[in-house]
Amino acid sequence: MAPKKKGKSEGLTAASPQPAKATPNWPAFTPLVPKSDLALEEVLQGQIVTIPNFWTATLCKNYVSFLSSLPLTTTPGKPKKGDAVRVNDRFQIDDPVFAERLWSQTALKSLVTEAQRKELWGGEVVGLNPNIRIYRYSKGQFFDQHYDDSNNVTLPGAPPTLARTTWTLLLYLTSPATGCIGGETVFYPYSPRKKSKDPTPEPFVVDLEAGLALLHRHGADCMLHEGREVTDGEKWVIRSDLCVKR
Ligand SMILES: O=C(O)CCC(=O)C(=O)O
Ligand SMILES: [Fe+2]
């Protein structure tokens, strides 16, 4: 979907090595809804999949209060050339243990791997990207239109697994019910060429819902998307990516 070499990138690749920092003492994933009560919903064919109630409202609330204690940094207003304008506060850490927990100690692994869907996921899914990103958007903050890149990663183990990311994972911890207004993630279906008489397709808007997990295809077939401006309250998101064997 993404026209090649056109448009901004997310600017979140591990291009600039981060100094090693102590991994946070992440709280346990409890309470959770039983796996049997959860399902993947393909809300936009081949592009966007959601899991409503992936985390409970209580777990989201506990996480927001825990994450508030982390040293978040405000992203520079002026992005590097080619990167999207992204105004939010974030915390980024390479934490393979947390990524593995988020994968295996929740319904994610079962839901994603129970049906062999190599075509959908872009290969054999082996886990989540250890590069964990926490975003906090306060009033006035947003993430401008961009495409998410696919990256090569190595999942630790004996032996390590060589993998590449194929889908973005966004786990929303806040919503209008928690006082966060705005901040929807909006996807823009492929815009036809200017001269075409076809109408421009409507954007696909994902409203914030605390505990909703959203997966969207990235890399060469990523849809143009943005995080709309937050107009009140705070939007909190946990970001990782699905990884397939390479
Ligand atoms: O915060 C959002 O709604 C979008 C985040 C995003 O697009 C990204 O992490 O690449
Ligand atoms: Fe993105």
Automatic annotation (TrEMBL):
Record field: transmembrane: none
Superkingdom per UniProt: Eukaryota
PROSITE patterns, A to Z: FE2OG_OXY
Keyword Protein biosynthesis applies: no
Keywords: Dioxygenase, Iron, Metal-binding, Oxidoreductase
InterPro entries to which the protein is assigned, alphabetical: Oxoglu/Fe-dep_dioxygenase_dom (IPR005123), P4HA-like (IPR045054), Pro_4_hyd_alph (IPR006620), Pro_4_hyd_alph_FE2OG_OXY (IPR044862)
Ranges where the record places region Disordered: 1-27
Boundaries of every Fe2OG dioxygenase domain copy: 127-246
Protein name: Fe2OG dioxygenase domain-containing protein
